[in-house]
Amino acid sequence: ALTTKAYWHFLEENKIDKKLKEIFKKFNQRDIKSLQKTGGKVRNLILKAKIPEDLKREIARVYQELSKKCNEKNASVAVRTSGVAEDAPTASFAGQFETFLNVRGEKDLLKAIKKCIASTFNDRAIAYREEKNIPQLKFALSVGVMKMVRSDLASSGIIFTLDTETGFKNVILINSIWGVGEMIVKGKITPDEFYVFKPTLKENYKPIIIKDLGRKTRKLVYDKRGGLKEVNVPTKQQLKFSLTDEEILKLSKWACLIEDHYRISQDIEWAKDGKTGELFIVQSRPETVHAPKIGKFYEEYQIKTKKKKPILTGIAIGNKIGQGKVHIIEVVSKIGEFKKGEVLVTKMTDPDWVSIFPLASAIVTDEGGKTAHAAIVSRELGLPCIVGTKEATKILNNGQEITIDCTSGSEGRIFFGKIPFKIKRYDLKKIPKLK
Fold first, then answer.
1. How many C-beta neighbours within 10 Å does residue 425 have?
2. Which residues of the chain fall below pLDDT 50?
3. Are 211 and 240 in contact (CB under 8 A)?
4. Do 225 and 281 reside in the same domain of the chain?
5. Cα gap 383→318, rounded to integer Å
6. Residues 28-40: tens digit of each pLDDT
7. Is 373 in the active site?
8. How many structural domains does the chain have?
9. 38 burial class (0-12, 13-18, 19+ CB within 10 angstroms)?
10. Residue 229 is part of which domain span?
C-alpha cells in the first residue's frame, strides 16, 4: 500500500501542493464549467509529473516480491484508492476515485498509481467534497495494490449489513453478478438480490428470506492485453443465481463478524475466485446513510394515486416524492445543460454525474439496483430515486411534468403530471415511549 505520506511526498516533490492553492482560488463551486476547468488543470499537472525515484524503487521492489509469492513473472493486480475522508460518517465517496484491474508489469503499475493520484481531483470528487464540506487541499489519498481475484470466471458483488432503504439492522443484503463487480456500482446491471435474517443466522439456521433473480445480461472479464472487457452473459447463465445458498450464508456470517469487529454497519465488497472456488472480502467500509443518523424528526409523505395508473415502475430508493420536468441526458458531456429542479432521466449514472445530483428534484434510471451508484448517492442526498425502470429513457420525453413516488414500499412509481401530496413531520422527542 502507498500511504497518504507517499501521496504528499509525490505532490511536494513536484511542487504541485503550492500550485493547487492558486488553482482553487479561482474555483467557483456553483459553475460546472469552472469545475471542469479546475479539475482538468489539476489532473494534467499530476499526470505530467514524475513519481519520485525513491518511491518508484520501493514500488518496484514490493511488486517483485508480490509476483514471487504468486509464482508469476508479473502478477495481475488491482490498483485501488482509499481517501482519508473517504469514509467520513456522512460521505461514502462511492466510486469517486479510479480503480484499475488486471494491471500487469511495473510500467503499467506506475501508470495506474499516478492515475489513481490524479483521480483525487476528478470533477466528481471535487464536487462531492464541496457537497460534504470536506476541504479540497486537506484531503489525501492512499493507493492499495492487491492480487486480483479471478472473479471474471465466477461472481462478485456487494454486501450491506442492514436494509439500505429502511436502515433495519436485523438483515444482511447481498447483491451479486457474474464477472467483475464494477458493473454493480456503475448501475449497468440489475444484480441478484438476497436477504438473510441475522438473529437466526447467528443461531446456525439457514434464514435466506428473499432471493430475487437479476437481469445479468453483461459481465466484465479479463482482457488478454490488460484491463477488462465487457461481454455478453450466456442465456442459460443469466437464468441462474450467481451464488449458491451455502455461499450466501458464508458471506453473511463473514459480514456479521466484520460488523461486530468495527461496531458499525458495513458496506462490503466481495469476490469469488473462479479457479479455486474461494470467496474473498476485498473491501469493507462504514455504511454512510443510516449509521450516522441521530433520529430527531420523521417525515411521512402522503399521496393519493389509487385511481391513477403509473406509466413506469422500478426499484424505489428512499421514501420521498419528487416532481419536475423530465430532462433526459444520454451522455455525461451534456450535464451542463441540466437545470435546477428538473428530473434527471438516464440509462445509468456513474460518479462523473455527481455534480448535477444536488440540482435534481429526483433521479430515474433504466438500469441498476439498490447498490448502484445512483441509488447510493441519492440516499445520501435524500433525493427520491427510482432505478431499474428498464425503459424510462424510451417512454418519457423532455419537458414532461412527472411525479416520482417512492412511498409504496420497494416499488417506485412514476406518474404523468404533478399529483398533489402532503408531508407530515413528526418530532420523535414528543412521541410517548412504549411501556
1. 8
2. 86-87, 89, 92
3. no
4. yes
5. 7
6. 877 778 888 898 8
7. yes
8. 3
9. buried
10. 151-286
On whether both 301 and 375 belong to a single domain, the answer is: yes
With a CB cutoff of 8 Å and minimum separation 6, the contacts of 65 are none
| Residue at 434 is within a domain | no
Tell me the residue type at 181. G
Q: How many CA atoms lie within 13 A of 257 on its CB side?
A: 7
Residue 29: give its domain's CATH number: 3.30.1490.20
Q: What is the pLDDT of residue 377?
A: 86
* 243, containing H or E segment: none
Percentage of the chain modeled with pLDDT above 70: 95
Same domain, 47 and 138: yes
- Whether residues 252 and 303 fall in one domain: no
Q: Which value, to the nearest 10 degrees, does the dihedral of the CA atoms of residues 141, 142, 146, 152 take? A: -10
Catalytic residue among 9, 290, 327, 373: 373
Co-location of 58 and 131 in the same domain: yes
CATH number at residue 217: 3.30.470.20
> What's the CA gap between 328 and 384, in Å, rounded?
17
Per-residue pLDDT tens over the stretch 354-410: 888 889 999 999 998 888 888 988 988 889 999 999 999 999 999 999 999 999 888
3-state secondary structure 312-331: EEEEEECCCEEEEEEEECCC
